[in-house]
Amino acid sequence: MTKLFTQFCRRLYSDYLMPSRLREYESLLARAAQAGYRQMSVRAFYRAIREGAVPERVLVHRHDIDSDLRTARKMFDLEVRHGVGASYYFRLSTLDYGFMRAIEAAGGEASYHYEEVATFAKRHRLRRSDDVRARFPEIRELFVRNFTRIREGFGLPMTTVASHGDFANRRLQVINHELLRDPALRRRCGIECESYDIELLRHFDLYISDRPYPVYYYPLSPFDALGRHQRICLLTHPVQWETNWLENTRCNMLRLAEELAWRT
Question: What is the rounded distance in angstroms from the CA atom of residue 228 to the CA atom of residue 242?
């Protein structure tokens, strides 16, 4: 009971009471530049790998836009101010073509944060991993339809994508990334790299992800990593950097509704 209460209090603070951390993010951008790090998108880093031109010190910024476009735009404004390019991956529920084009125009990358495996499993109430994998041909076609529709609306190529993690993936132990292990699917869509590809990740000395209060970063703070590690990837989610009452409430209610529907 005490553990559940502690978890509830932490979630309440993270979603509704936490002060903005955007000054901290701007400080990180400035500190990394001062330490001689080239700050770039996933796409730019992957192409530097292929060209054999990876900078000695690099900080790759990956933003997964699970929710909260408002805070994502604020993070983007800070990056523009500091001349930083970053990758922004949008779910179907967070697509904003105007914002995506602005990111590309500023030298960053905008692309797809896909979740077709989890979406299909929840929609068809699949509760066993074998049942989900047996439907992969259908799920791949769903991915192609969604990807093509986004690319047409966006009007620009999308050459890297990033898998979204959903509670359904964790329960089923089937990650969305499994879908992109099909080379033919990648060729159909013109995808050069998935953000969890080993060929990409092995070039990082350190991979950091933000976390909710009270942890904030895992496995360590990027401030502590600067100077100690040369090639760093930082994964962030806008929801971890500033509270948005309406958006967080909407997401919490949607998660609850999906959980109940999947169980029945």
Answer: 28
Tokens 């989900």, residue?
Answer: 132
Give the pLDDT confidence of 136-158 residue by residue, as tens digits.
Answer: 999 999 999 999 999 999 999 99
Side-chain half-sphere of 84: how many Cα atoms within 13 Å?
31
Q: Is the pTM of this model over 0.90?
A: yes
Amino acid of residue 171: R
C-alpha angle with apex 76: 211 to 18, nearest 5 degrees?
40
Look-up of token digits 């009270």? 214
SS3 state of residue 129: helix
The dihedral over CA atoms of 152, 157, 162, 165, expressed in degrees to the nearest 10, equals -10
Q: pLDDT per residue over 176-204, tens digit each?
A: 899 999 999 999 999 999 999 999 999 99
Please state whether the peptide bond connecting residue 219 to the residue before it is cis, i.e. omega within 30 degrees of 0.
yes
Query: Which of 153, 68, 158 lies closest to 112, judged by CA?
Result: 158
